[in-house]
Design a protein that fits this description.
The protein contains six helices and twelve strands. By secondary structure, the protein is of the alpha+beta class. Keywords: Proteasome.
Amino acid sequence: MTYCVGIETDEGLVFAADTRTSASFDDVRVYRKMHIFEYPGDRVFVIMSAGNLATTQLTISRLMHDAEDARSTRSLRTFTHLYEVAEYVGEVLVASQIRMKDEAQQSGVSVQSTLILGGQIDGERPGLYMIYPLGNCIATSPETPYLQIGESKYGKPILDRILRPQTTLEDAARCALVSLDSTIRSNLSVGLPIDIALIRAGDLKVTQKMRMESDTPLYSEIHETWSRKLEAAVHSLPRFPWEPARAEEEQASSSVPALPPRRVAPRPDPGDASGQQQ
């Protein structure tokens, strides 16, 4: 299993993906699931994958081959609109699955893969598409400015609560990291390292990218801060009706009765003979 999330905001795109791949309980490996295709000044694409690893690698290899072939009339470099690129990538994905199905027919292994494609072509605004195993695709919307593939349920709540089209690119990236961190905490099939990439609108290249390990200071700080703040938020939630009365009872039962005020004898007047010693 895997988990990848793509986010679209007014400022650009955020991509985040884990790297854990498992063929069985005792065969866990690290593979990159985020693939970058950069043609600076003209266009940039990021593809993230979930599903059969062999199918994904065949699909990415075919996309790279077509893009590098100067004679190719259909490639990542030839289309003028992002939705046309999404349709083309869907066709390559379907063809790869058909080829893999013939080879894996006897094993009963699923050869399906699902992709997230995002990027920008010069003259257009950035966009984000999910490409299904059948080759069809959907795009983000103002109501749902993110797409998920893989083990998505654990990391979804923060995306629904925080993300808006006007969310800054850096805040969206932090949401993506917390979404992945929550999934890693709850599901063993998703694991570190995490790859993250940002495309700022108009840059036509990957603006920032990094890989985060368990000992990466930024990831460790985000992990600890989120856990601490979340716990504090729970403690700060409104009290139940019975809680104030109970608190008053506990305070009353534990309080010590006040001692009477101490009486202090008046100091003798030095001019009074009755106060002198005998």
